[in-house]
Design goal:
Layout (H helix, E strand, L loop, with lengths): L1 E5 L3 H13 L3 E5 L2 H7 L5 E5 L7 H11 L5 E6 L3 H10 L3 E5 L3 H14 L6 E3 L2 E4 L4 E4 L2 E2 L4 H11 L6 E2 H9 L7 H15 L9 E4 L3 E4 L8
Parallel strand pairs: 1-2, 1-3, 3-4, 4-5
Antiparallel strand pairs: 6-7, 7-8, 8-9, 10-12, 11-12
């Protein structure tokens, strides 16, 4: 799971980042609002300070909510700033922590938000089993030899079965906003995943092409429409 930590305090970034990594999360860091908006497409959760330079946290929060309404957001506020907390919650933040705080408490709140958001420690779809924390995938009980990017791509799709992802969105989520890639990169990795999954592109069990748009993950156990 990727957590975006957006705060302009280097000491906080270092300490809280270390606790999050110790809990098994990959940490993306942003020291201002503009960088936070660049990185958030890759994140599974955001820890957002409201008083960011360049672009304040309220504007970041509003923009993220327009594009990713499902993304869990934990906001950081100063002690006594009740008005900030109320405004942040009204804009769509899921929870808040008041500074100074215990890093252990923040990690616990992150885990709780991810559980509430349905981002599980294990995903099972018919014969396919994914373990995000261990970064392992199994098909019919046998480990799948996936590259890092292949696993990230499969996990991104599997965490949202039925949701259509454009190639551009997958590039941002898996490769990152700074990747100078083209749509063809996504197609090549999807083709490789299909081969390893034994997926027929014309009648897929897992990875379905939505022509003219992108790809989506099919749950083989879901009832037919």
């Amino acid at each position: 799971m990727k957590v975006l930590l957006a705060d302009d305090d280097p000491a906080l970034l270092e300490v809280l980042g270390a606790y999050l990594r110790g809990a098994g999360f990959e940490v993306l860091q942003a020291e201002d609002g503009e960088r936070a908006l660049e990185l958030y497409p890759r994140a599974d959760l955001i820890i957002l300070d409201l008083m960011l330079p360049k672009l304040d946290g309220f504007r970041v929060l509003a923009e993220v909510r327009r594009e990713r309404p499902e993304l869990p957001i934990l906001m950081l506020t100063a002690r006594g700033e009740e008005e900030e907390r109320v405004k942040g919650l009204e804009l769509g933040a899921d929870d808040y922590v008041v500074k100074p705080f215990s890093p252990k408490e923040v990690v616990a709140r992150v885990k709780a938000l991810l559980r509430r958001a349905g981002l599980k420690e294990e995903l099972n779809y018919g014969p396919l089993r994914l373990l995000p924390k261990e970064r392992q995938a199994y098909l019919e009980g046998k480990p799948l030899p996936l590259s890092r990017l292949e696993f990230d791509l499969l996990l991104t799709l599997a965490q949202h079965p039925g949701m259509v992802f454009s190639r551009e969105r997958l590039l941002e989520k898996v490769w990152g906003p700074d990747f100078p890639g083209v749509d063809r990169v996504v197609d090549v990795h999807i083709a490789s995943l299909r081969k390893k999954l034994g997926d027929d592109p014309e009648n897929p069990r897992f990875l379905e092409t939505v022509r003219g748009v992108g790809y989506r993950f099919k749950d083989p156990d879901a009832p037919l429409p």
